[in-house]
Amino acid sequence: TAAGRALLDDADAAAQRATLGLGAAATAGFLDEDNFASNSATAAPSQQSAKAYVDTAKSAVLSQALGWGQTWQAVTRTAGTVYQNTTGSPIMITICGTGAYTSLLGGDASPPSLRLAYNIAGGTGQNEQYHISAIIPNGWFYMLTGNFGEVRELR
User: Fold this and answer.
1) What element of type H or E holds 113?
2) What is the Cβ-side half-sphere exposure of residue 77, based on CA atoms within 13 angstroms?
3) pTM of the model
4) How far is residue 93 CA from its own chain's centroid?
């Protein structure tokens, strides 16, 4: 039809709306708000606004996820010293225990008193190695006790 050919000949969506007699009415009521601040019950968000909102929310959630943007790092830790996770995200700590026992305490107060991981060697403790691990939430304190060698943190 002539109307169909006219639509195909139009250079862009604005010209097609004009051909159909819609003009600006076809986009009336759309909001361009990346944060949805108006909280409108009647106006729909633009595609760009919806995508910006979802991308921002996704980044906020992922920044709090264990492993997101983190790498394993060898760290030096001293038995009986209290440390605090101030990274803004949870961290994972893994310890290579040596000797008779190794313990990892954690908590939201210093000194930490919640036993997160613990191992006692089965024999004399000589030449024995084992690994213990725990997740330390952001803001929590943690402390190692006993005998240990390598300590790594996913931070």
Assistant:
1) none
2) 29
3) 0.64
4) 17
